[in-house]
Amino acid sequence: MDILSSPVIIGASLVGMGFFTGLSGAMIPGPMLAYVVSDTLKKGALSGPLTVLGHILVEFSLIAALVVVGFELMKSYITQFESLLYAIGGVALIVMSVLIIKERKGEQSPSNQETFERQVKLQGATRPYNSSIVGGVLFTAFNPAFPFWWLFVGFPLLLQGFEWLAFAGIVLVTLGHSLSDLAWYSFVSYSFARGKNFLVGKRYEVLMLVLALFVTSLGVFFFIKGVTGLF
Known about the structure:
Elements: H1 7-26, H2 31-43, H3 47-73, H4 78-102, H5 113-122, H6 132-141, H7 145-194, H8 202-230
Helix pairs in contact: 1-7, 1-8, 2-5, 2-6, 2-7, 3-6, 3-7, 4-7, 4-8
């Protein structure tokens, strides 16, 4: 058996694809990140993992809906629509990589406490919800960018997983994505709880640039795959 066609290698690739794509999105400052910082300053290092648990509950519900409704309705038409979804998803990933590069400067680092405390106040998150899990649910469900990300980026990733390993591939992509959220927000929460500023300056810029290159590569791959399927 060719080692590249091994289910283990393919499965690991899908987990990595879900992880790094999810991480690239999680590291862009947004409402939930501001909430985690605010909640951490009041409650401690467990705020991040608990908030992510609420976030994952919403994502699992959406993924289940996409799998049950999306794949069932599109079963006989999936070859007609998947090329378009891949092409749009590729463009969305390339746009995301541009946003990552724009946000890579050290002063935008989530580990810069002074900057993000100002962001927290500006976004009205100085009075967090009593439950971190509820906060994760609300800041995910009512984030206007959330459904668009899953429609144009997340769904093509799930399609790729389904194409490679059927429903096991969807599970592996989802696992990688969830692990990225858990790892990043846990790290942010721990850092703020301990008063550490590890990801500032060049470290943060380099990490964001690496993620941007990965997302760009995946975007180009999806776009080429989608366009070649359309013509």
